[in-house]
Known about the structure:
It contains four helices and no strands. The protein is mainly α and 94 residues long.
Amino acid sequence: MRIQTIPFSEMSKQTIDIYTNVVIASRRARQIIDERVSTREPLDEVADDNYGYTELEANEDYVEQEKAVSVALEEFLGGKLEWKQELTESSDKE
């Protein structure tokens, strides 16, 4: 995975407010994580009388996935996310 910086100008193309951009991307990242967790199979419960360290077996079917934050930012910068800004009570009065 290649690490690169994201230009501020790219982030401000979607909305001018950087905080809104961060919230949108982070909520999408949370959705991605929740989707991944819900599709995983639960581990079998193992009783350990001593509560000591137990070594987990490596899963043969393990596939490295791209980080949820990276996927969310790619979707956000690509214009693939839809959102609507909810007005708060204090912004209604202005």
